[in-house]
Amino acid sequence: MNHIEIINNWNLNLVFHELEQGNMRIPRFQRSYVWERAKIVKLLNSIYHEFPIGSFFLWEADAEMEGFCRDITEFGFPQKPAANKFTFILDGQQRITSLYVALKGKKLGNIDYSCICFNLDKRVFKIPTLKTEPNNIPAWKIFQPSEFHRLLMEYSRAENTELAEALISCNETLNNYPVSIIKSKDMSLEDVVTIFERINQGGKRLSLFDLVHASVWSKDFDLRDLITDFNEEPAIKLWGKIDNEIFTQSLSLNISKDCVKTHQLSLKNEECKDAWKRTTECIRLAIDFMKNQWGVQSVEIIPYQNIIPVLQYYFFITDESSVLPEHKQALTDWFWTLTFSNRYSSSTLTKMNNDARWIEQLVKDPSVTRVFTVKLLLDDLKKIRMVHRSVIKNGVLCLMALQKPVDFNNGDLVTLDKTNASRQNSKENHHFFPNSLASKLGVKSEDINSLLNFAFISKHLNLEISNKFPSVYLQGYSETNPNLADHLKTHFIDSKAYQAAFANDFRTFIEARGNTILSAINNVCRINDATPTINSNLDENEQEVLLEDVVEDEMI
């Protein structure tokens, strides 16, 4: 049976009619409308010059797929299809929507597309820049029959034959332009998603999550909505929003023991429904463990969100609600060396799979270790800026959180999540040497933004310190807080760094604090040792992956 039909007798009027009847719809996995007016002008000019604009790929489905629609509510199209079937736009949604808003004179959001005009003198579509420029006719007036005839009568009465001919030419081109349709029929949702993935699209491509969401969707199981609900849970909201992909990776690991792309795309609706409740509970357990054991107090400082699927897999296969004592140290060693070796910076899904295999071995034999070589120097830490994304930065912030930092004016614990009722007690990111003093200290502003000049303190302390030199505010706190030195140690500020700060010696402070933090990293993972880059506890497949990464880096 032929599942594909190629139709060459459609025009824009027929496409718009199908839209307005509620027959042609946008599937949920399609992205939102994003085209700018300038891009629409180019599309219209291609049509005017009778250049090809590509085919539209449609999928004909039964009316029971109503919940799979994502509507543009401003258009007010019928919710029920007149033909009792839906025709979903798999490829061409941006082009169809663009032509519709321009040739129907619509407004979406704050953008008015009715201003797109056809200039009769130059015979070109454009966005007028001058209100006084003559013969700029809105495209929708040329396309709309009654407006077109009114305009034609005006130019005919004025005996402006050339402009009247240009008007007629534009109208006929828009009405007669052939639209190429490829329609798929009698196909399952899974088949359609597979086809869609293979379509060569321009612009922003759909994400892997978009495709998985579509392939496992049903009326009673909408993955995107379920994830939104999960992220709205009070405890999760305080910790931070988890990326959509983390859920599909977790489901794939739990269902197929593999999270590479092909396995995620092979997920089925029923198995995802069956695994969803336990998977989300395992994700909650993973978050709690990371907060309590590894200092991951918020999603903002997690080194990789990809750690979550692997850690939740431990809870999934053990069916435990807490990490067993005999597994805790091995998991901790894995976390810190994974972080400070930047392990998931490439071939992420493959490496996650290998780590999941180790989790399975660990459950059977608690003596099986999993560590990765870390090579970090003080100069590496000095180069890290708070304003830049960095896995190492987040790892250091987790170590800082584990210190249970306190305000050094009074020793009050700094709450690092969003649980404080008072905004004054909320956590602030504080420069120990204030940014405004950079020139007076003889250093660059980018140096002030060093990770090593950062501390977690409360908002009220941050405001109290303001732009004071460390020598000023430390002198004041030393007189009122007898435990100042001990409180500063919760920020990795030892006596040497303390004395440097007291003397407003920025460079010595950074050096001393950097060495203290480097020592803390050394306590949680082996650094600067003679262990080979490819560790002896990696399997042969993983060693090949790492070697491939090295080759790719050299080629880049």
What this model shows, in words?
With 556 residues, the chain is α+β, with helices and mostly antiparallel strands. The longest helix is centred in the middle third of the chain and has 26 residues, at 269-294. A five-stranded mixed sheet has the order 1-10-3-4-2. A hairpin with a 4-residue loop joins strand 7 and strand 8 (124-126). The protein is built from 26 helices and twelve strands.
Layout of helices and strands:
Layout: E1 4-10, H1 12-20, E2 24-25, H2 37-48, E3 56-62, E4 85-91, H3 93-103, E5 107-108, E6 111-112, E7 117-119, E8 124-126, E9 136-138, H4 139-143, H5 145-157, H6 161-176, E10 179-184, H7 189-198, H8 208-216, H9 223-231, H10 234-239, H11 244-256, H12 261-265, H13 269-294, H14 307-318, H15 325-340, H16 348-364, H17 378-382, H18 391-402, E11 427-431, H19 438-441, H20 445-448, E12 454-458, H21 459-465, H22 470-480, H23 484-489, H24 495-502, H25 506-524, H26 540-555
Parallel strand pairs: 2-4, 3-10
Antiparallel strand pairs: 1-10, 3-4, 5-6, 7-8, 7-9, 11-12
